[in-house]
From TrEMBL, chain A:
It comes from Hominifimenecus microfluidus. The keyword Transmembrane helix applies. This is ABC transporter permease. It is found in: Cell membrane. Residues 54-258 form the ABC transmembrane type-1 domain. The chain crosses the membrane at residues 12-30, 54-76, 88-108, 139-160, 181-203, 239-259. GO terms for biological process: transmembrane transport.
Automatic annotation (TrEMBL), chain B:
The lineage of its organism: Bacteria, Bacillati, Bacillota, Clostridia, Lachnospirales. PROSITE patterns: PROKAR_LIPOPROTEIN. Keywords: Periplasm, Signal, Transport. One of its GO terms (molecular function) is polyamine binding. Its main location: periplasm. This is ABC transporter substrate-binding protein. Spermidine binds at Y98. InterPro entries: SBP (IPR006059), Sperm_putr-bd (IPR001188). One of its GO terms (cellular component) is periplasmic space. It is found in: Periplasm. Residues 1-20 form the signal peptide. One of its GO terms (biological process) is polyamine transport. Transmembrane segments: none annotated. Gene3D superfamilies: Periplasmic binding protein-like II (3.40.190.10).
């Protein structure tokens, strides 16, 4: 009995924080204005505006995820190889920006990328012509990479740090060269870190609307913006909820895909 | 302090309609008793934030002996449910044009007794006619401020006279220098006016044509923004931008090269108006307050504080020649004939606009 009582706060938490909100999203998403059941809010994803926004979101978040992975993996290796004392400080330095407000960090990119921003001022004072950076897809990718990179670094570093050095030594003893050690030992052992890093970058990047608002200048519409606007200015909660259900399906499918890939990876692919 | 308390109550009440219902019925007797016991009583005013000269309120209290209880809101949409539910009862509210229309339709407003508001005669005929389109017969509302949507441009980069209308925002030589409003009605208004259609059109083919025009303009636009346009124009990150006339004087104070044009194709004119809700506490005090606000010298104080166009002919006569000649304060009558007030289009039409808007934004 007492044990059951101890679980009460968590049950309340799950009820208020997950089950009730989810039920409301399903309710709004599957009903129309008059209250009847309809799938039209979900089918609306096929409308040109929505489909294009979804496609842009997928594309930009994929690019950001790949860049994050390419930056984070070598970093993880370096952090692993560096000595203990240094290591703590280095990890700390990479995670430090996460302690600052997310909006503030994105706003800083605005200042950097603006037509008369920091980057262009430096370029022009060196005699180069200024770059058109802000309000482009590139600017959004830069913002996503900066904001989400720590989410890629942490899991990859954690997994790499846990690899027993003796395993690597054993591989060398048996005559493996650097490439073989990486390809057959380090990479397969770090797959769980990569998978969790990819999910933690791809999912928030796919649904963001703040970064595209601030760095896209209203010229690039992501699916997150569409959903946000349906709830605010569009005043059509049913459509907004319907589209977020589509996103939920999308995210579940991609997570399942990654999980499957992970299982294969640890099995025989590598 | 008082304001904060009231606001807290407001938030609580808004959060819980059930509680609100009990609260308002329970409050009736208490507040009525208060009204009769205290000499001239109070007037409960609900207005946009920072939208009145505090001195004016003080002067009103001193002259009439009526105590002002003052609360603020940020958007029409925030104000509406509070008045509708009656969770807090106000005597005077200041909604915008389309919201006045909606409040009249939903029978939330009390007719104004013009005998009690003699100063209303100063309201100009032009403004009365515009107000007639959202409040037929001017029965429920009296304009407080009004303005236009137009183009702000930097006259050091673009000589005066080069910018005359909306069509200039489609010229490729201004590529990357154009800032557009990031709100559905304002952006479609610009395109519809170029095409010679009404900003309140409900015709799908006209909306589709406007969408096409906006897609053509998109590569030239530097940024779609709202409040930020002001700052970008001041620090010269862009040469021209769509802006509300009320922001022009502030921009010019910060950067004297900025000039305002009311586009020749016509534009949107907006009105903020005093109204009296049906569930007000004291209609006489409400009318006394509105009458006070319609006095020409009070109108001038308001103008000096807010810099919006005044609907008051008496106030206009008292202004300096420079202000009278400023198109952001006193636009050309001929262009005004081509201007329109926004109407509430209803859910179906709004959704149609929204669909086209997303198609244009995702392009």
């Amino acid at each position: 009995m007492r044990r059951k009582l101890l679980s009460a706060p968590y049950l309340v938490w799950i009820l208020c924080g997950t089950l009730i909100p989810m039920a409301m999203v399903f309710y709004y998403g599957l009903t129309g204005d008059q209250g009847g059941f309809t799938l039209s809010n979900i089918a609306a994803i096929a409308e040109t505006g929505h489909a294009k926004a979804l496609w842009t979101s997928v594309l930009l978040s994929l690019v950001s995820t790949v860049i994050c992975l390419l930056l984070a993996y070598p970093l993880g290796l370096i952090l692993k190889k560096s000595g203990m004392g240094q290591k703590g400080l280095l990890v700390f330095l990479f995670v430090l920006p996460m302690w600052m407000n997310f909006l503030l960090r994105t706003m800083a990119w605005q200042v950097l990328l603006e037509k008369k921003g920091v980057i262009n001022t430096i370029l022009q004072s060196l005699g180069f012509s200024g770059l058109r950076l802000i309000n482009t897809p590139t600017a959004i990718v830069m913002g996503m990479v900066y904001d989400f990179l720590p989410f890629m670094v942490m899991p990859i570093y954690n997994v790499l740090a846990k690899i027993d050095d003796r395993v690597i030594e054993a591989a060398r003893d048996l005559g493996a060269n650097n490439f073989q050690v990486f390809r057959y030992i380090i990479l397969p052992l770090s797959v769980p870190g990569i998978v969790s890093g990819v999910t933690m970058v791809f999912v928030p990047a796919l649904t963001t609307f703040v970064i595209s608002n601030m760095l896209g200048g209203g010229k690039i519409l992501l699916i997150g913006n569409v959903i946000e606007q349906e709830f605010t200015v569009g005043n059509n909660w049913h459509l907004g909820a319907g589209l977020s259900l589509v996103m939920m399906i999308f995210i579940l499918v991609s997570m399942a895909f990654i999980a499957k890939f992970d299982k294969n990876g640890e099995g025989n692919t590598f | 302090m008082k304001n904060n308390k009231i606001r807290m109550v407001l938030v609580l009440l808004a959060a819980c309609p059930l509680l609100a219902a009990c609260q308002s019925s329970g409050n009736d007797s208490a507040s009525d008793a208060q009204d009769s016991s205290a000499g001239k009583g109070q007037v409960y005013i609900f207005n946009y934030g920072d939208y009145i000269d505090p001195d004016v309120l003080k002067q009103f209290e001193e002259e009439t002996g009526i105590e002002v209880v003052y609360d603020t809101y940020d958007t029409n949409e925030e104000m509406y449910p509070i008045i509708e539910s009656g969770s807090v009862r106000y005597d005077v509210v200041c909604p915008s044009d389309y919201m006045v229309e909606r409040m009249i339709q939903n029978e939330l407003l009390e007719e104004i007794d013009y005998d009690k508001v003699p100063n209303a005669e100063y309201i100009s005929d032009t403004c009365r006619e515009f107000a007639d389109s959202f409040d037929p017969g001017n029965r429920y509302s009296i304009p407080y401020n009004w303005g236009t949507v137009g183009i702000l441009y930097n006259s050091r980069m673009l000589p005066e006279g080069t910018i005359t209308g909306w069509k200039d925002l489609w010229k490729s030589e201004y590529s990357d220098e154009i800032m557009m409003q990031d709100s559905l009605r304002d952006i479609y208004m610009v395109a519809l006016k170029i095409l010679g259609y009404s900003a309140n059109t409900e015709s799908e083919s006209e909306i589709a044509e406007a969408t096409q025009l906006l897609i053509e303009q998109k590569p030239l636009v530097y940024k779609y923004a709202t409040d930020a346009i002001r700052d970008f124009m001041i620090n010269e990150s862009a040469m021209l931008g769509v802006i509300y006339s009320g922001e022009v004087l502030y921009c010019q104070e910060e950067n004297e090269d900025l000039q305002y044009v009311v586009p020749e194709e016509g534009t949107n004119v907006w009105f903020d108006n005093w109204v009296i809700p049906k569930n007000c506490r004291n209609k006489e005090n409400a009318e006394a307050f509105i009458d006070f606000m319609c006095r020409p010298e009070i109108g001038l104080k308001t103008f000096e504080y807010l810099h919006y166009s005044t609907p008051n002919d008496g106030t206009l006569a008292m202004m300096s020649e420079a202000d009278k000649a400023d198109p952001s304060v006193n636009p050309d009558k001929k262009i005004l004939e081509r201007c329109e007030v926004y109407h509430d289009l209803g859910d179906d039409v709004n959704r149609m606009y929204n669909r086209y808007w997303k198609a244009f934004k995702s392009e």
